[in-house]
């Protein structure tokens, strides 16, 4: 058996990368060009989460990425869901901030003034992607219009969608998506569910096995993977690629606040849970005071309203290094992280070597 024989899969072929290992995208300003470029330069697929960027800034970022690495990379967007509010009215804003008043008071912050809010327009973001032609366009929370998928294919852009259960995987394949990410409930960040409630997401192992048993398109496993053992296990279940988020979040190239990165290595990272407290959408993070206080709240407004209502609290937490009001995104693999992997390129090389080691030992 030759070393890295496992690396030649339909995923590495489609992505045109030496290794089928993906640095998962981070939305909301946590991705950086340096992170994606370091991973792509090391032979994996670096990703940039750009859902929060208006089209002009997305365009500038894609140009920067292309200049920073000559290798393939992915850009990631969030498909708008039908039930998602488009903005927030003054009454909902005032009621929402009033509920959070004790938190604003504790940080010595004034309650924010009402301002109209809106998310960037998805169709305009897609126009930018089609124009810039990154090797890979990945998306979550649904499936773009068939015309968009057809246009990606025509332009040589590989499409990647995320599934949290078998129904979503089947829907992605039926729509003509090229690759499906099996996003297990262990994963850090938001649950990308779109056909079933987020807390019903299947775990990475059974989800990967179910999807690879039924789908014809290749599957990438994501959620709770942190080293060669996890990647090898995913391959044993039929995956042709592995996507890691939390492990790359902890590297120096990520834009996670320093206190967040520090928490990933702490004992508190052993206790993660799904919460709607920070954004209105279920995501996995380390338990902290804010998360615990809102754990049983039934009046949290939907995404993106809660995201806007908590924005000043989270910004103050990041600035002051206060972990109790930050969304400390983390997957269940966080306790497996090693402090010596501070550089994203070095982490990618470790993952390749460690997967070699595990698979060689098994053979
Ligand atoms: C801070 C953070 C932000 C994330 N944002 C996105 C995103 O915008 N789009 C997306 O497809 N996945 C997003 N993810 C999921 C990751 O790309 C990846 O699939 C996941 O982290 C894998 O699980 P792991 O954290 O257990 O390794 C995010 C994850 C984290 C930790």
How many β-strand runs?
A: 11
Radius of gyration: 20 Å
Largest sheet: 8 strands, parallel
**Helicity level, as a percent range?**
40-55%
The rough form would be described as globular
Number of domains: 2
CATH architecture of the largest domain: Alpha-Beta Barrel
What sequence of helices (H) and strands (E) makes up the elements? HEHEHEHHHEHEHEEHEHEHHEEHHH
Mean pLDDT: 97
Numbering strands along the chain, what is their spatial order in the largest sheet? Answer: 1-9-8-6-5-4-3-2
By secondary-structure content and strand pairing, the structural class works out as alpha/beta
Name of the CATH superfamily of the largest domain = Aldolase class I
Tally of contiguous helical segments:
15
Contiguous low-pLDDT stretches (5 residues minimum) are none
Would you state the CATH class of the largest domain? Alpha Beta
Give a description of the structure.
With 363 residues, the chain is an alpha/beta fold. It is built from 15 helices and 11 strands. It has helices at residues 10-15, 33-41, 55-68, 90-99, 101-106, 122-132, 146-154, 166-175, 204-214, 228-236, 246-249, 258-264, 289-293, 305-320, 344-362, and strands at 21-23, 46-49, 73-78, 136-140, 158-163, 179-183, 189-190, 219-222, 241-244, 272-275, 283-286. It has an 8-stranded parallel beta sheet with strand order 1-9-8-6-5-4-3-2. A 3-stranded antiparallel beta sheet has the order 7-11-10, with no helix packed on it. Helix 2 (33-41) packs parallel to helix 3 and helix 2 (33-41) packs parallel to helix 15 (344-362). Bound molecules: flavin mononucleotide. Residues 24-27, 30, 49, 51, 76, 138, 140, 162, 183, 186-189, 192, 222-225, 243-247, 249, 329, 331, 333 line the site of flavin mononucleotide.
